[in-house]
Amino acid sequence: MTTAAEPLGGTGHQETDLRQLGQALGAGERAPATSGGGTTSDLSLDEILLLHSVGLEPVQVVFGIGVISILTGVWNWATGPVTDAHDAFQRAFEEAKETIRSQAHAAGAVGVLGVEVEMQVSYHRYTVVVTGTAVRAFTDDTGHSHFAATYHSPFLCDLSARDFVVLSSAGWYPLDLVAGASYVHAPRRTLGTAMSQSTQNVELTNYTETLYQAREAAMEEMQSHIIQAGGTGLVDAKVIDRPVHFAHHVVEFVCYGTAIKMLAKEHTHPQMTLVLPLDDQVRTFEATSLD
Amino acid sequence: MSDGTAGRPHAFDSGLTIPDFAACLSMGVEPLGLVQGYFCGQISNWSNYSYDAGYYYPCACYETGPHNQGWVGQVRDLDDAWMQAHRTALGRMLKEAADLGAHGVVGVKTDLSHPTNENSCEVHLYGTAVVVSGAAPPQQLWSTQIAGHKLAKLIEIGYVPGSVVYTRCTAIMAEGCYMEYYGSGRCGTGYTISPLQDAHKLARSRAIDAAVSSYRGSSLYDVRMEVEESERYRNTYIICSLFGSLVDRARSPLPVAQPVPTISLSQ
Amino acid sequence: MSTVPSDLPKDAGARLEELEHGLFTSDLSVNEFLLVKQVGFHPLGLVMGSSIYHIGLQKGNWGSSQELTKLTAAMYDARELAMNRMEEEADQLGADGVVGVRLDVNFYEWGHDSAEFIAVGTAVKAEDGTSYRNKLGKPFTSDLSGQDFWTLAQTGYMPQALVMGTCVYHIAHRGIGQALGQMGQNRELENFTQAMYDARELAMKRMQDEANNLSATGVVGMRLEEKSHQWGDHTIEFLSLGTAVARRAGAEGVAPPRPTAIITFDN
């Protein structure tokens, strides 16, 4: 692993003259086909520009899908965790990640950015779809590559290209997508306790414990996956916390994100310019009739 | 198609915003006029669908003799109709631009809808036709959804615009004994439901491949994929619609300057 | 630091131990993460506290406006339980404070008259080893985003605690006699006005008392939320939330940097 890259283009980089760019457009030049043919990506132009500033370019839109079965009857009212839903989720997630990684590998990519994770649980199956853009390090005319990190297998990152560029400039690099999930039945109250609690303010300890346990178990699982991936941290964790849409007595808790690791020698703080946009619009008087 | 811009040699109209207009002029790219392409059609009732070669799944029950094992394939009819509609509308827009003497169209916007019912399709494309002053007209007009400074940046990193793109792929997963067993939960937890997985993959990969191969340009970016899943007569249909932009590489990539990080103080 | 406080579930113990050994998790965005680092803090982990609380029935008198003290107590105690558990987890990690705290109330179909109160945030610790705990020796809490935390730190102030005051108020329905007498006239709805005034005052005063207990210099980012939850329109909870702040020792004379005024040219 080499040291963190210097800003590309140097501080004296001059913006190309607009006139020259117009002429390049009119000239209709086409470069000879580079190895691997054309590229595809779901990044916007802004994101491609940012990637170019760290020596990467998009290669291909890649995706992975996992559809795993869930045994009949697990959603009927019971107590405790719904382990089948959890197991199906983890398998579907793994399957989707494996597919997207192999597509990225086949495209010669160093990793996948902007991964969008869609999870759908239904009665008999769990579907996980991951879609993103595989990126590779480009070499300029002198054969020099500007991208600073080396990976043994393509990384997966749900951060946008913009966030990736900002984070990697500070010295942190993504490793893998990690997730933890918990499905648990809400406990039942017996009629006797229900009646006696009606006028009191009181904590329902068995409910609290059940949901608390479920959440902690999911976060713990996500943490152990971070360690397995070799990461030291996670930012921008996404949390889904809601009753299962077709079985309201089951609460679903999923947390996922990208495991990251500091690969540079130390954290580099971005040189920030503090600005105050003076863009507030004129406040005009609006008259509406009262009907 | 009538050319609504005839007889206006000097004045132009354009859908460009002020900053884009300023940047285009600085680049020597001059707007000529607003151009559009439109197509509206009726698609024949899709009960006579033609299937693309599919693949079958192993039998998961004890029945012998011919029975429905289940398979995955592509239903081409609607897809071909929609893609043809888009190509026609795009062609009409480029023709209007060519009649004005343009080299390409910038700021292209695409609208698709069902004006009357599910079997009808309507495609509307519009943008600003431009000419690059002092340059020879290209073999084929190019089109792109960006304009102005963004276009300048695209060229700076070594690309030139090719064409706007729309493709569509409908994958069908026909119900059979494989799905009945693995898709109903009777098999247990943890089994990969391959037909559904493969149908999803088919829809997406064919939409991407069609985009790369059927339009001008070699690199596809700004891809937006919308996937819908629906059921009809016990078959599951997965429709993937893809919008994007094709560009060509003009020269090898060069690094660009890093942007300035700022933190804004107003909410 | 390895014994789990008795109030937290056992899974929390294992998870927090992992975080103590250098692993960190957070729901801060990438921008917030970098800004928090710039202030000189490092995130330790996601901390969470929750409590499912049954709220005792209490009905107000139809004709009079009054505080429903039982409901106020319930809302307050439930949130305190959730926040305290979150602080315990932060304490367990050796944190200096918690940023980006989110306080949510969830109502579940199966929990009649009960609600779940959740407090989630990211525990942080100063990298230079200085302690930033508040006057009571507990990690500070605040609902400031990473950006606001950075901006506050530039002024030389640091958060002390998320302070809150709540008041559940029942607004009188107007008596029929009064209603008839007021038809056709322009009048202030005194009942309503007075009730809203009193309720807000109570909520804000309680919040200020909490801030005073911490010897805070002031409260920033204050907001007042009004919710009926599930009680109908004449019963409203007024929740006043803010972050109590105090000047950091040795920070007298720190001047926040002047920003560059800019005009952005995008639409």
SSE topology:
The complex is a heterotrimer of chains A (about 290), B (about 270) and C (about 270).
Chain A: H1 18-27, H2 45-52, E1 56-69, H3 83-106, E2 111-121, E3 125-137, E4 155-156, H4 161-169, E5 172-185, H5 191-196, E6 202-203, H6 205-228, E7 233-244, E8 247-262, E9 273-277
Chain B: H1 18-27, E1 29-42, E2 55-56, E3 71-74, H2 76-99, E4 104-113, E5 120-132, E6 142-143, H3 149-156, E7 159-174, H4 177-182, H5 194-214, E8 219-232, E9 235-249, E10 262-264
Parallel strand pairs in B: 4-6
Antiparallel strand pairs in B: 1-5, 2-3, 3-7, 4-5, 7-9, 8-9
Chain C: H1 10-20, E1 24-25, H2 30-39, E2 41-54, E3 66-67, H3 69-92, E4 97-106, E5 114-126, E6 140-141, H4 146-154, E7 157-170, H5 176-182, H6 190-213, E8 218-227, E9 235-247, E10 260-262
Parallel strand pairs in C: 4-6
Antiparallel strand pairs in C: 2-5, 3-7, 4-5, 7-9, 8-9
Helix pairs in contact in C: 2-4
Total domain modules of chain A: 1
Radius of gyration of chain C, taken over Cα atoms and rounded to an integer in Å: 22 Å
What is the count of distinct domains of chain C? Answer: 1
Number of distinct helices of chain C: 6
- CATH homologous superfamily title of chain A: Hypothetical protein apc22750. Chain B
Q: Supply the CATH class of chain C.
A: Alpha Beta
Distance between the termini of chain A: 71 Å
Return the string of H and E elements of chain C. Answer: HEHEEHEEEHEHHEEE
Compressed to H and E, one letter per element, the order of chain A equals HHEHEEEHEHEHEEE
CATH superfamily of chain C: Hypothetical protein apc22750. Chain B
Helix content of chain A: 25-40%
**Major protein interface:** A-B, 80 and 75 residues
N- to C-terminal separation of chain C?
A: 53 Å
Tertiary shape of chain A = globular
For the largest beta sheet of chain C, what order do the strands appear in spatially?
Answer: 2-5-4-6
Runs of chain C in which pLDDT lies below 50 for 5 or more consecutive residues are none
